[in-house]
Amino acid sequence: MESNTQFSRSFFVNSCSLASIATAEQASSLLELRDKLTKVDESCLYYHFWGARMYPHFVQSEHHNDFASWVYHRLHDHVLAERLSIIDPTEFNTLDALRQEVIETIDRRLDDYEIVHWTKREDRFHFICTSIIIFESSLVIERPQDLPSVIPMMSPGSIFYHFIDARMRTSDKMDDFSVWLETFGDAYKDLVQKIQAIDPYFLSLSQLKDELAEVIKGDFISRGQL
Amino acid sequence: MNQLLESYKEAVGADILHELSQLARVLKGMRIVHVNSTKTGGGVAEILMTMTHLMTALGIETHWEVINGNADFFECTKQFHNTIQGLKKTIIRPSLLKAYEETNAENAEHLRPILENADVVFIHDPQPAALISHFPNRKNKWVWRCHIDASTPNRAVWKYLRNYISQFDASVFSLADFVQPLPHPIYLIPPSIDPLTEKNKDLPKEEVDMIYNRFGIDPDRPMILQVSRFDYFKDPIGVIEAYKLAKKFKRGLQLVLAGGGAPDDPEGEIVLNEVKAAAASDPDIHVLFLPSDSHRTINALQRAADIVLQKSLREGFGLSVTEALWKKKPVIGGNCGGIRLQVFNHHTGFLVDTPEGAAERIRYLLQNPHLIHEMGEKGQRFVYENFLSTRHSRDYLTLIISLFHPTNNRRFEIHNINGK
Fold it and tell me: Among all residues of chain B, which has the CA nearest to that of A155?
């Protein structure tokens, strides 16, 4: 998961689109979820932690990945849901390491179970994998001062790519905006901190864009540059 | 930028439209053909109308063809529809299956030039699925688009259709819950509504107000509405039951059941007659059988309603739910299919399993009108972000790119779109 965003001082804005691909693999119980997790393509991990943000969905902020949400709403195991929800995918260098963490968290909970609960047919967990297509937008940010005017023009796909997907491919697990601003030394250190304080898990992509735009605009206003 | 794209830009935002144009540039020069079984009536026809215009405006040559069939053919495909959506006891007569195969064979010859010249052929639903068997040496990509819930099909019918469907290069389903295992990639693409059509665009208040007079609805009393084809799976009788239960507490309540038929649905008239009989004793139940082009009337009815119901027992996606949310109406929907992807309890409406449940939620919302307003706002935002035709088109473009550029690591980068 290396960075593939090359900065030569200018920030070339990319966008992306995700194809959601059904695996037809399902789980009706925690045991099945655990077993199938060992076998599914690792892009399923990407989808259920990050990619689902690009798939039509209603933002329910209490759970940060699909596993936690399913365990909460369909298995009604609130303890496990909380433990799964707190897993931070950026702490893992590979999707396979992330997979192992999810499996181990489930295994620990299974040790507590006397009876494994099953869901109804319509409540099964469906494993979905993904293929991501990355393409150029025509937007280029020549200098940091242009950020406040360019961010509002960015599509949800660009926000996803640079603010969310970046955390899986940059060496410091940061968003691309922070990585780029750090190439200017300490000049934008405060702004980087403010950007990194935005928790992407609680916002839809359009809310995320609005929040990012507001933080950046506020910083440049305080610098007297807007 | 042409006029249509300008209009979309206004409706969905320049950022979304720019992204769509960038993706479309990758596919410039391609020819796409969609095939289904009706030009009018139902969500599929509406989607294809929009998709064809929007893709063409984006510079991708897109055609929409319709197969022709006789009464036996449509009786067969209606039974496909019902059995794939779970009706177990039906056995389709061999003579109907013969009509299905012969109709597809005839249409294959008629459509051969355009289908052979396309780069990608999208076949919508089971009606034209057997076309593929008449193109054994095809060089292009064929995709089967399933708009219905195939999660628990009649196994005998699915086995029959699977022979055809497995020949495709890929399938598209609206939701993961609807998927059957197939030997090719299965893409998930929820459908969409078009914010620019007569069905969904803003209407002047006077036009909405005129709907009351036209259909004898009292504007001073609450009105609940279900818009759907007259089809058992939409449970119109259950809606009447829910209305009657709610009316014990909300005496002025009015119900409108509005819908039409479609040329490929021979069952509609039987259901309509049952609904009329159930509604006959109550003058506050308005059963409206509307022509298939009554989009503006439907639009006005949805805007005039206080609450919209979609109490389906089985549902593909439920575009009438999307339409209602777009018009800021909370939806009380059956706990099934794509309704579950759109209706979230206390946020955009309520999911219910029985007429009793629907009645209780009707009473709750009418008693708390501020919630109708709050949920309505949230519902429209939800549709804006997720279920407009621009997102749908983006997903189709993504699918096509994925089909032509399969990668092992599931990441594909496209360079030099801008010709730098």
Answer: B15
